[in-house]
């Protein structure tokens, strides 16, 4: 496990600090039609790096979770190890910023690779499938009864996003609506650094994640221009509804067709 210098190892965050909600078997949102609200999916975010020699096992573990119908598993390559002699070809400083925001929100300051953040709440070693399973169970229970239905689809040159009302008795501060475009798979030959000579495989790589709106507990909808957010690598898209900008993820939807 790679640690950023001067940053401590993560601990399991206390889920009692966060708002709750239900888990259920999920279905993809079909583009091109106005879908019903899909069941909730648990969200796994893997922070990884091509310069990290302990990351390839975590990349493999995430690929296994990505095949589950009740999970959105995404890869967010970070640039924090670029100084070691190999510049990560998929990394974004926005991904590194998101990982730092999670560490600050949890209060543990833990930033390392490979790290999986589960439902925006708990950070665990991304190579440890059992720890990820446990974190899914804990956060799923912590969020029980408080998740928000989210859906999106596209029509012609527009993307339409809808989020439902907060459940009765639950009050939220403003939540961020994130829209991310995803490349489903990439194979990268590494020429220098700790992984020199290897070809690394990545699953559901986030190529861009943008805040596109906010939600305050009331049902809402918004419309985006597809041309404003598309990238050549786009093969899928996700929408996340997240308390603040680095809190619990209380709603999520995915489409694997674009």
Characterise this structure.
Helices cover 17% and strands 35% of the residues. The chain is globular, with a radius of gyration of 17 Å. The model is unreliable at 4-33 (pLDDT under 50). It is built from 4 helices and 13 strands. It has one domain (2-10, 29-255): Glutaredoxin. The protein has helices at 56-66, 93-106, 129-142, 226-229, and strands at residues 2-3, 42-48, 71-77, 112-113, 115-118, 122-125, 150-155, 158-163, 175-189, 199-215, 220-225, 236-243, 249-255. The relative contact order is 0.22. With 258 residues, it is an alpha+beta fold. The strands form 4 sheets. Strands 3-2-5-6 form a 4-stranded mixed sheet, sandwiched between helices. Strands 10-9-12-13 form a 4-stranded antiparallel sheet, covered by helices on one side. Strands 7-8-11 form a 3-stranded antiparallel sheet.
What features would you highlight for this structure?
258 residues, alpha+beta, Glutaredoxin, 4-stranded mixed beta sheet, 17% helix
Under the CATH scheme, the architecture is 3-Layer(aba) Sandwich
CATH hierarchy class name = Alpha Beta
Which whole number gives the mean pLDDT? 86
Q: Catalogue the unreliable spans.
A: 4-33
User: Superfamily at the CATH H level?
Assistant: Glutaredoxin
What percent of residues adopt helix (DSSP H or I)? Answer: 10-25%
- How many strands, which pairing sense, and closed or not: the largest β-sheet? 4 strands, mixed
Number of discrete domains: 1
Q: Which structural category do the helix and sheet elements fall into?
A: alpha+beta
Would you list the SSEs in sequence order as H and E? EEHEHEEEHEEEEEHEE
Strand order of the largest sheet: 3-2-5-6
Count of helical regions:
4
Terminal CA distance? 35 Å
- Tell me the overall shape: globular
Radius of gyration, in Å, reads 17 Å
Tell me the strand percentage band.
35-45%
């Amino acid at each position: 496990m790679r640690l950023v210098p001067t940053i401590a190892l993560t601990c399991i965050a206390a889920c009692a600090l966060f708002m709750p909600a239900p888990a259920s078997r999920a279905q993809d949102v079909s583009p091109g039609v106005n879908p019903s609200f899909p069941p909730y999916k648990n969200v796994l975010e893997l922070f990884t790096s091509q310069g990290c020699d302990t990351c390839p096992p975590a990349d493999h573990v995430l690929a296994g979770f990505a095949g589950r119908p009740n999970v959105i598993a995404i890869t967010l390559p970070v640039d924090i190890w670029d100084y070691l002699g190999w510049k990560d070809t998929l990394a974004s400083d926005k991904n590194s910023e998101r990982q730092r925001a999670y560490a600050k929100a949890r209060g543990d300051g833990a930033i390392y690779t490979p790290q999986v953040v589960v439902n925006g709440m708990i950070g665990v070693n991304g190579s440890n499938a059992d720890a990820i399973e446990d974190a899914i169970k804990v956060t799923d229970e912590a969020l029980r009864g408080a998740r928000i239905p989210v859906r999106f689809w596209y029509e012609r040159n527009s993307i339409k996003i809808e989020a439902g009302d907060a459940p009765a008795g639950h009050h939220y501060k403003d939540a961020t609506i994130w829209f991310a475009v995803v490349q489903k798979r990439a194979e990268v030959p590494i020429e220098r650094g700790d992984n020199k000579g290897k070809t690394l495989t990545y699953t559901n790589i986030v190529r861009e994640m943008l805040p596109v709106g906010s939600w305050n507990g009331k049902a809402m909808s918004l419309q985006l221009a597809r041309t404003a957010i598309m990238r050549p690598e786009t093969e899928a898209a996700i929408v996340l509804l997240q308390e603040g900008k680095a809190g619990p993820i209380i709603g999520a939807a995915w489409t694997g067709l674009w």
